[in-house]
Amino acid sequence: QWAIRQGDGSVTPMALGYEPPSTDDLGQDSSTTVLSAQPMFLPDATDQKYQQRLLVIIMDYSACGLPASLTEAAARTVFLGANGDGRGGAAQKYEQCSYGKLLLNATAFTAVTVNVSSCPPFTHYTYILPPGLKCPASAGTVGPGAQHTWLQTSAYGVGRWASILSATLHNYGGLMDSYNILSSYLDLSSPTGAGDVCPNAAELAYLGWATPAQGANQVDSRALPVGAALSFNLPATYLTPNGTYIRVVPDWLPTYSNITLAKNLYIAVRVNKGGDALLWPGLANKVHVHEVSASLRGTYLIGATMSLSQVVLSNYNLVVYGGSWIGTDILRVHICRYRSAPQEC
Asked: What start and end residues bound the annotated signal peptide (predicted)?
């Protein structure tokens, strides 16, 4: 009996005994291959959703003594959760971290351990490498804007949802790794660093997943005179995509006119709840400051402070002060620019 299987996984049965024609209306037979370019960027509109129809390919090199240890059922659990419905696993974190804008289509999701000669119209492909295949990284992607990612069969590879999300994010517009300039180690406030959390504010802005606070999209020298503080009520990024960060454009620095040296700052509040539940305690319930170069080659965590405390960013002649909590995980944040010394603030 014949059936038509759509790209989303749904099946339409056909009458028993029906024989399909050998060619379609255009004279094309079953061996025809059609290639269609897929857009790699997420939709710009904040109310649009993007669903991945993901094919996970588990690499089995048994002939080389490197058999796969991850089963197709286990892969489904990793990506879609214990019930396989997309309400758990990596799919849940996709939805939490993107505020519902990036989803995994649980119906279309397919995991295979064999080579296939043709593929349904999947938008992206993830390869699970077998244990024993030595590689210095636990996950990766084939260049910015690509459709292909790979994961090691390891606890820090396919066993870590943040590694899955990190590799996925590298596919969208070439988002790079995030670092911690304070300790010369990867940023624990981002999955593209070393954190089991959602993206930081700079990355959320780059992806178009979040918006700045009112009046905080371009805080430059005109908006922030010397010695005059600006104040914003910032909800923790896990709460909402709306009004979650301050974007500082430090055009008062002489280096800002040089595009190779110019950097912007993104200031946001992070709390260890929701998609950020596993945020490192040393960074939880604090104001974070990230530095981003004009070339967008990566973000750097350069400062963090708690409520009723401050951090001085001497490279920017800037003071960031965490005020009082004015609501559930909503913090009053103040910023002030000085000319010679922080005491001017």
From this structure: none
Check residue 342 and report its DSSP letter: G
What six digits make up the tokens of 41? 């960027």
CB 127 within 8 A of CB 151: yes
Q: Are 165 and 94 in contact (CB under 8 A)?
A: yes
Residue 126: strand, helix, or coil: strand
Q: In sequence order, what are the beta bridge partners of 232?
A: 333
DSSP 261: T
Closest C-alpha among 146, 241, 247 to residue 199: 241
pLDDT digits (tens, 9 = 90+) for 196-215: 999 999 999 999 999 999 99
DSSP secondary structure string for all residues of 10-66: -EEE--TT----SS-TTS--TT---------SPPSSTT--EEE-EEEEE--BGGGTB
Tally the C-alpha atoms within 13 A of residue 242's C-alpha that lie toward its C-beta. 2
Note whether 289 and 302 are within 8 A (CB). yes
| Euclidean distance between CA atoms 175 and 212, whole angstroms | 19
Give per-residue pLDDT as tens, 70-113.
999 999 999 999 999 999 999 999 999 999 999 999 999 999 98
Report all structural domains of the chain as residue ranges with CATH numbers, in order of start: 48-174 (3.40.390.10), 185-344 (no CATH)
* Among 117, 115, 113, 150, CA closest to 135: 150
pLDDT tens, residue by residue, 8-67: 555 566 656 656 666 655 555 554 443 334 444 445 545 678 899 999 989 887 776 778
123/145 Cα distance (integer angstroms): 12
